[in-house]
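Homework help thread (please don't just give me the answer)

Our assignment gives two proteins as sequence + structure token strings and asks us to describe the second one. The first is just a warm-up. Here they are:
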Amino acid sequence: MLETFDLSLLLGPSNELWVSAYSRHGAVHGVPRAGGNLPSVAELDDMTEDFEDAIQYARPFRGMDVGASLRDLLFGEPEINALFNRGRGAAADQGRQVVVRILAAPARLAAVPWELVLDPEGGVHKYLTLAPDVHIVRAARSRTYPVPSALLQPPLNVLLVLSSPVRWEQNEDVMSFDLFEEKRNLLDELELLQRSDILRIDVEEHPTLENLRRRIGSRRGGYHIVHYLGHAAPGGLYLEDRFGRAALTQAEAVTALLRLCPQLRLSLFAGCETARTPAVSVTLPHEWRQGLSTAEQCVRVSCPTVIGMRAVLPFRTEWLFARFFYQGIASGYAIVDAVRLARAAIRGDEFVGGELLDWAVPSVIAGSDQLGPLLEPPKPGPRSPRPTFAELKFDMVEEDREFFSRLVPLRQAIDVLGGTSPGRILIVTGPAGVGKTALVDRALQDLVARVDCVLYFKAARLRDEKDPVLRLASWVGELLTMFDQRPRARPSELDGPGWWERLLSDLTNTRFVIVIDDLEALSKSDAATQVLASLTRAIQQLADRRGSCRLALLGSDLPDGLIDARASYVSTLRLLPFSWDEIWVWIRRNLPVLTRYGKAGLAEHYTQLGNDLAAWRDLGSRIALQIGEADLQGLVSTIASSRRRTSPANFRTPAPGDVPRTQRALRVAVAGPFIKSPEAFAQAMTRLAAQYAVGGRVVTSDQTTASTLAELLPISSPLANEILPNPRPEADVKKAILDWLRSIEVLQPDIVLLDYGSPVEDEQNEIIARLAASALIVAAAGNEGAGRQVAFPGRMPDVLAVGALTPKGAVAPYSSLDLAGGKPELHALGMLQDSPLGSALTVPDAPGTTFSALLVAAAAALAWSINPARDQLWLRQVLLDSATTIQLKGSQATVRGLNIEQALNLARASAVIDALGKEEVAYSDLQGGVGFSTPVLDPVLLYLLGKNKIGVRENLGVRLYRAVDLGRPTAGSAHPAASPIAPSAPRPEVPSPAAHAKPRRRSNRARPGTNRPSG
């Protein structure tokens, strides 16, 4: 039993606060509370705003000071305090607890964090709602239905709504938190109650209004508990539309749907800000309902008790709350007791507890005094057995689930492998270290209750098998026997393919998932080729059966001919490294303690920690434990060094050899004389990638890291010390350059930067010509001025020569220019002091074509990483087609200027065209195939539609895209042609010429006739 004590706070006509109190022991009405040390309404507004900011940025908050002010406001009146103490004492005598129901109106008073009220009697718990005998809840302003008082009889019907749609808006968070992980934790907590038939839980993972209505209709009497996991905004929830994309559904529509559950007793809206009042202007008396939060709307028309959130919480807080709340409910606790249990768990957590006040964000909105247990404490009884499940996972390394953030691909993988989409084969590709294995592993963890058997192995296990299909069939037969206890022995007359064909019927009639990882291992030897041929036939036989078996194929790039990726039964997911923007969103939602440093303050450390979410979590833990100001750079360096020592060896770039570019990081060779160190240049290129929302890091060859965008080849620059006034002899310089080129050629580079120049050609020609057959060669044009021949090797036809631009965007007077010879083909900023690359230079304030070529080479690496399947001729043309047109002063002639953003957009457009091929592709499949987030993909699609490069039609509510020109672009041709693409986000601070100061002296100190830096 619970003792109720009601408090109402109303705002008078002159912004005066009036407080009333009522209990069965007496009443005090209409007491004005103003003056003295009591907070004014404006001060309460400030407290509310400060509290919400402190939660969002994980800052310690003056909770005790605010709590003392709120205590004085409510209990500073002696009669109210005496009435409360009488009720509290009487409740203690009868073994009851007190529920303080606070009714605050209008919205600005309701927004105050009343959960922070201090206990008038003091105590180690400090806050009243954490006292062992008192709870604080919010009283609903309206309830329009009668409330039954009897305890429910098991089983309780629970609807878990899991909402993780693709987002429409480009500025919305797309990887905020792992809803599937929270669902898993919740179901694990309630498993025993499900097996004891005390709870019956239905999960809706595609919550359109129609699907929710169908769910409710499938349960007689509807549901007793509804739990919403997903995104929300004040006044609404993000459900799905018919395309599977986010639709902000107003609270009125949601609560009207819940009215179809006449026995609904509890709704828990775990979405952020579901208990926060929407920012609407209520000017007329009859509009007061528009100022109610989603939780208040639900109490008004649908459910007597609702729990909502008053601010944006980190994922860990929401996970802790759900876990311990349901643990209490499952044990027969009263609703308010279960809430207090969850608050205590949050407050005691090392990451979101302590001085932080996340525990105060959940609010209980009560429409009645029925806040006790929903059911009797469960008694021991018969339990249904766990579903039969068989699995074999060879070589599986299971990562910590909390570091997973690929929610949109995860949802697609679950749909395919779980059998809820038409696809029967899932292909997952992407560079090493992006989490292909982790994605499928997470999907399998979520599918335990939906599938019967799981087989996972790496392709290398079959590489040395004489009959690889025999080995595969033996594993499948073993799992089928484990599942249904029906032995399956191979007939002696059957070889591997024969036995496989015999097993196919059982296999395809079982909810079976087969995962083959690291398939690139089957494309490196003659023996592997034979294995691949046998495996291809077996896979095709399986693909031809329309059964329950699902197949996942993982690899940096699948071997040719293994499966027709364009087939209608195949779904493809391409994973790319997270960009800094995506990492920042993950940090905001999971590590709010780091947000105090701001996005710009943390961006610098992305060059060291990159996509390693565990490293960011380590940093957040260390910051949380710091007393006083932390040495952020020192902590990052320590963590980065430790992570390099413990990173898996398979993150290394493969050794030189016939390895496709899609299976490794780009290899970049830089001859640069003005680069501080390879490490400094790698970090500078990573900063440039982060600025343009390109995921991954640039690393040196001695680093082991996940999600590598490019690798700097480990050959020392031949010109590193070639700075006047002490130049080496000419012959020594030539020999050093030749030796460097020969060493680079062995390592098979993709991009070679020749940032030096000579007026005469020499023995480099033959080597450079061979390199240009597969690599993009970028060279400085030289600093001899307009009308002068471009320096060697930039004047070679296969070399992309780069001239310099002034800070105002004009061709620099010192930049060599040969209009008749068409050289240089491209120009770029000639001074990088204010560019991300400037931090890696020994002379960042010096202009020269060396620095222009440096910027072009870095931009080329970013563009090629977007579509590594294309060749160097395509990359060269993308840089040229995306360039801006610059008219020469006093002439009708024009030259091209580097446009990094447009080059990246054209690269993305080509990836879309390649993914479409000759088929019609649904939006979700296209997004999975290219690996772009919605903010990146949508502007590219709009551009291609505007240029008539693609078409779109709608079929049964699904948008299908197709390439208008079905012929695939030839190598070296940029497709589509250059034209501005609307940026997917506010244009970044590009190092545009207009952004820089007046150029200083050039750093070209080379003598005529020498191979010297063209700086």
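The one we have to describe:
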Amino acid sequence: MAEESARAVRQILLAGAVLAAVLLLSIWGLRPPAPKPENAPATSFSARRAQAILNRLVGDGVPHPIGSAANDAVRARLLAELERLGYKPEVQAGFSCDIYGSCGTVKNVLARLDGLESGSAVLLAAHYDSVPAGPGASDDGAGTATALEIARVLKNIPQPRHAIVLLIDDGEEAGLLGALVFVDKHRWAKEVRAAVNVDTRGTSGPSLMYETGSANEWIVRLYANGAARPATSSIFYTVYKQIPNDTDFTVFKAAGYQGANFAYIGDVAQYHTPLDNFANVNPSSLQHDGENALPLLLALANADLSNPLQKEAVFFDVFEHWTIWWSASWTLTVAISTAIMLLLEIGWLMLKKRLAASAYLWGLLGWLVIMMVTGASGWVLQMVLRKAGATPVNWIAHPVPVQVAFWSLGLAVVSSLGLVFGRWAGSSGLWAGVWTWWAVLAVVIAWQMPGISYWFLDAAAVAAILGLPFALGSNDAARGAGWVAILPMAAAAIAGFGPLLLFYDALGCDALVLISLLAGLLLTPLAPVCAESRTLRGLARIGLPSVAVMATILAAFSAIVVPAYSAKAPERVNFEYWQDGDSGKSQWMVHPDSGRLQEPIRVATKFRYVDKGPFPWGGNPVFLADAPSLDNLAAPTFTILESTLVGDKRAYRSLLRSERGAPKASVLFPPGAGIESVRMEGEPLPPEPERERKSLNGWAYFSCPSMPAKGVEITFTLPAGTPVEVYALDETYGLPLEGLFLVKARPFTATPSQDGDVTVVSRRVQLLP
């Protein structure tokens, strides 16, 4: 018994040391490289040189959305930078519309480095416009500075095989409009075969290759061979395809370009806010961007672009030092083979009476109960933290305690239930049960989503390989459970800890239950080791579960007591002044991300909470207060220039115009209006996605965020014989002077975001049959 107890202690300590080491290496691996100085060799990328460019571009901290004078100024600086580097830049102006009903005039900046061969080109892309609320130093000033520093490097290295086109486009924030204009209308677009896009969704963190084209086996091979600090995973690629987020790379993929998309996502609380400024740009992240984009761009520019194989890969990095990849087409075969091998080993152990059938069944049940309890406990903990005010918004100021709490929760459940089920299953029964489930998941996910399969397949394959000599040997099952359990557990942690550490930055507090569930899943291979604790006595027997439970409680308590907001991670709170151009009624509106007013704002005036705003398409709660009516805010006009009956349809030609010179104007048609064949300035608007219509309660929305003084012409058809009442509205950025008291009431722990504070004037227009 003493020998068994000593072995159990050694195994638990070894398993804990292995997990701790892998976790620390995973955290260390997510650190971007140190920035290279300005005097770095001319052939290498230097973040300090890129920073200097960035400071010249957006160091003034002024937001520069599409169509603004500030955007014109940034574009002029861009042109000057390219000319200084020896390029002959050009400006492409054009009008385009996205699938969400947003149209506008953009002015792209382009330059070209000719290749040794003609006919094919590679694109390096970033965007220079910002959202109205922030200066966009990281999104995407950092990408622009990265592209310009790469452009400098290209002048100092041998000429590539294929031409390289540099596209710094406009209007990305307004709906990927600049990318659309380039792809549809520029003469160089037809030459492009592959694109490298550099964008961000935060201000720090590693630069992730999170999206590729359809031929990603080819891309991953080039990336793996060239990246000094690879940071990537086919999990990112697979998950991103399920999320309704778009970047310019979405447009490039639709045009048939191959390539890759890079971004860093740390400190996402600063994204699309005034805190996305030059001071908050992380130079190490900038360095990583360049060290990722440059070698892949050069590899593509010197590769055979004629016909890349349309094959996908399963891939991931190991501590940002190595990239492991294989063809996705092999995955299901390997997963099935692994499952068969494991089941044969388990069957052999049962045949030799080294594993009882009842122990195996208890092991299968134990894994299932662990996952169910982890998910349920995670949900309960999330509800407790939400009720206690620890997670009022999706990204909070101090996220480490909540992450520790949900990781520790997974460990607490696995270690506790591993000990409980070890009573009936033993370590060998739990080992067999755990890896049976992992093998089954590997097969199912390899079949449905091969990009995620490596999380299960790698560790299951290690378990099957190590289990073979164990099963065929004559040693007692319990004695062999240590190394047979710990090494596959290490493989699971190496493959899974890195991506899981990024889940919070990617998805926020909404993903906390998922984080606990995945942490529990990755830790289930620890259960057979924990089962050995049943041979211990007293507190030693419950040592690991007790430590994990205490860590969960202490981390959850810390999450509750630390403030949810700070000056560097404030709550997003937008103010809006709205005036009804028909009645003159005016209101202040507040849109806090948390759904609650911070005290200084609450006492600024008499706000009342309503479940739905004043617009029929708005379904979100809002805080309202009466506001003074302003005579100097002329309502927008929506004028019918021509109306023609065509069969059972009536075709309209109209003019949407902001009479007060607002930069943005929109028109909305009610549900069931039957609007079709919409064009703005002659550009067709595709039907809106169903999710967009649902978010607007069925209303059809058409907008121009770069409204010219003359207005924009919109043509459309409606069913004949039915009157339709539409809304026209325009929007300026910032509040009128009468709203200065609200701006002053916003505490330092709150910030505007996206469009920021706005002044909106609306009117209703009857379209008679």
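TA reply:
I won't write it for you, but here's a hint about the kind of observation we're looking for: Residues 161 and 303 are 8 Å apart (CA to CA).
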